[in-house]
Design brief:
The protein is α/β, with parallel strands linked by helices. The protein has 3 domains: 11-16 and 23-286, TIM Barrel, CATH 3.20.20; 299-374, no CATH class; 378-417, no CATH class. 45% of the residues lie in helices and 11% in strands. An 8-stranded parallel barrel has the order 1-2-3-4-5-6-7-8, surrounded by 7 helices. The termini are far apart.
Length: 418
């Protein structure tokens, strides 16, 4: 009857891969939204290091910063924009003339003009009317287009805005020169079902433009929402390496890429063998440790302690691994502890050419369990305390530094801080 099927991929059976766009363009946000992770700062040279690796991996578009933020941010955007990378280098700006001018001055290939569109943001953040927002969006899109750069129009809080106003605003921006539009789930408020519903409706009413989504992870749904958007025709998902970003972060680059590659059978064009490399680079430069249980790149992603799991993986890796670790530049590890079984012990002994009888293997297993269960948790508790203390100190300017800056500006701190 031919080769036996051992794994059924019902995503492919259901034809989900066929629903995806012919070409998905990956838009990286690591150097812009990723850098907005509290306490994170990338120097211009560090941005270039990250951008170079991502470009070599096949990432299509990179938002490398908001030039108007600071002199170093301006220098960083200009440095990356003039590095001759294959990726299209994009700079972000508010719908404010000086912001747009700064992007153009930095020689960016594209500008991403953003403004809020939900009534909540308009009332409490911008203090602008809908008409004023539309006027600003049109004015700056026309200005950017007239200066020969690619124009993307973005709104914040798209999915909590009035639907008819979203359509009106975006169509006005498209008429003004935007060739790509980004719908932003700014606080991770939508769900996969809602995402599909919204995109399917909005596609019917938008004028021709490339569709993109920017998903945040406040409820752990950023990757799922990005996949849902791709399933209904969105071509450009935003991602951050290691899922960095404001609050709980953005859609994770490595998770979205590998979900498409493995679950959907979709060839992304990304060199996935370098995923671990770029993940470690961003971990090092951001100072944000990769969570041990982080999908794809976390320490535990390809680690096994349970005797049942280790036995299965030794016999056939796909029993407990949905992808080969080598594919993403990782390696498999067997952890010895309370749940260790004889298969992992025998495997390690055999690989080091040590012969042991079954009784000796059982004895080793028992001794490993005894040692694991006898260890004090003092060291573990001390590490957690140290890590949390470090995080408090790492997060930007400390209170003491803040009030020192206030004094240097000629102001007097409140009495309790003098």
């Amino acid at each position: 009857m031919g080769e036996e099927r051992l794994v059924w991929n019902y995503n492919i059976e259901a034809g989900l891969g066929k629903q995806l766009p012919p070409k998905i363009l990956f838009w990286d946000e690591t150097m812009r939204d990723g850098e907005q992770t509290p306490g994170v700062y990338f120097s211009p040279e560090e941005k270039l290091r990250i951008a170079t690796v991502l470009s070599e991996m096949g990432v299509d578009i990179m938002d490398v910063g908001i030039p108007v933020v600071s002199k170093e941010e301006y220098r960083g955007v200009k440095l990356v924009a003039n590095a001759g990378l294959d990726a299209s280098i994009l700079a972000a700006c508010r719908a404010v003339r000086r912001d747009v001018e700064a992007c153009i001055e930095c020689d960016a290939d594209e500008v991403s003009i953003f403004i809020a569109c939900s009534d909540l943001h308009l009332k409490y953040k911008l203090n602008m009317t809908r008409e004023q927002v539309l006027e600003a969006a049109v004015r700056e899109c026309e200005y950017a287009k007239a200066h020969g750069v690619g124009v993307t129009f973005v709104t914040e809080d798209t999915f909590r805005a009035d639907f008819d106003y979203v359509v009106t605003l975006y169509n006005a921006a498209i008429d003004a020169g935007a060739t790509r539009v980004v719908l932003s789930d700014t606080v991770g408020y939508t769900s996969p079902t809602m995402m599909r519903w919204f995109i399917e409706r909005v596609k019917k009413r938008f004028k021709p433009a490339q569709l993109s989504v920017h998903c945040h992870n406040d409820f752990g749904l950023a990757v799922a929402n990005s996949l849902a958007a791709l399933e209904v025709g969105v071509e450009v998902p935003h991602t951050c390496v290691n899922g960095l970003g404001e609050r709980s972060g953005n859609a994770s680059f490595e998770e979205l890429v590998m979900a498409l590659e493995v679950l959907y059978g979709y060839k992304t064009g990304i060199d996935v063998s370098r995923i671990a490399e770029v993940s470690k680079l961003v971990e090092q430069l951001s100072g944000i440790p990769i969570a041990v249980n982080k999908a794809v790149v976390g320490y535990n992603s390809f680690s096994h302690e349970s005797g049942i799991h280790a036995d299965g993986v030794i016999k056939m890796t796909s029993t407990y691994e949905p992808m080969q670790p080598e594919r993403v530049g990782r390696e498999r590890r067997f952890i010895f502890g309370k749940h260790t079984g004889s298969a992992a012990v025998e495997d390690r002994l055999t690989r080091h050419r040590v012969h042991a009888t079954p009784d000796q293997v059982r004895q080793i297993v028992a001794m490993i369990k005894d040692l694991a269960e006898s260890r004090s948790k003092d060291e573990q508790e001390a590490f957690i305390h140290m890590y949390r203390e470090r995080e408090e100190k790492r997060r930007g300017v400390s209170d003491a530094e803040f009030w020192d800056i206030v004094r240097r500006a000629g102001l007097t701190p409140p009495p309790e801080l003098r």
